[in-house]
Amino acid sequence: DIQMTQFPTSLSASVGDRVTIACRASQSIGNYLNWYQQKPGKAPKLLIYVVSSLQRGVPSRFSGSGSGTDFTLTISSLQPEDFATYFCQQSYNIPYTFGQGTSLGIK
Amino acid sequence: QLQLQESGPGLVKPSETLSLTCTVSGGSISSTNYYWGWIRQPPGKGLEWIGSIYYTGSPFYNPSLKSRVTISVDTSENQFSLKLSSVTAADTAVYFCARLNDFWSGYRWFDPWGQGTLVTVSS
Question: Which is nearest to B18 in space by CA: B73, B88, B66?
Fold first, then answer.
């Protein structure tokens, strides 16, 4: 199985901050990488697919980059509604696997 | 707007079979470019893909669960289902159903998701 490792696992930030979350795959996955946001008690919500394509309705302050084994999710200016847990997910190989999540909290 | 809704028992006894159904509304389960799948999340933990299926059948599963999982589709009811046999406490989780989008020769992502349903395995 391809292991997806996110770092940091948690971070605290303030409204208006620029935040970057990293995701590393245990082998090259090309650009088969997606990002999700999950709030407590809710289902994950797709933010970005195929590394950098923004899902319809997702604010442009979210962006993704990377290729191969190293990927990043960036939030350019944190808003109050962005405090949540973020997961990366690879679709290069079965089984599809997710990172362990990065919990983004308020400083 | 496509919506998915999980249904099924919230409590299952150890060694028995967990059965859930996902009802799709606002669109057809028989659409091309889309698979349908199940993902679970133990309380306070991460996400685990269980398996997926196309509307014509031919499911594919996570090898770690393959011996215990069956996913099926009912196009007449616009539903797909999950059965997980011989459950233990380790199978306690929130179970989500989701559409697996498939474009551009194999790029796939989960969207949208159902709200999820908590299944507890306990006697």
Answer: B88
Residues B114, A43: C-beta atoms closer than 8 Å: yes
- Contacts with B60 from chain A: Cβ below 8 Å: 94
Nearest residue to A93 (alpha-carbon basis) of A22, A24, A30? A30
Looking at the complex, report in whole angstroms how far the Cα of residue B87 sits from the nearest Cα belonging to chain A.
Answer: 20
- Tens of pLDDT along B4-58? 999 999 999 999 999 999 999 999 999 998 999 999 999 999 999 999 999 999 9
A55 touches chain B (CB under 8 A): yes
Phi, psi of B102 (to 5 degrees): -135, 105
- Non-local (6+) Cβ contacts of B32 within 8 A are none
The string of pLDDT tens digits covering residues A70-96 is 999 999 999 999 999 999 999 999 999
Q: Is A62 on the interface with B (CB under 8 A)?
A: no
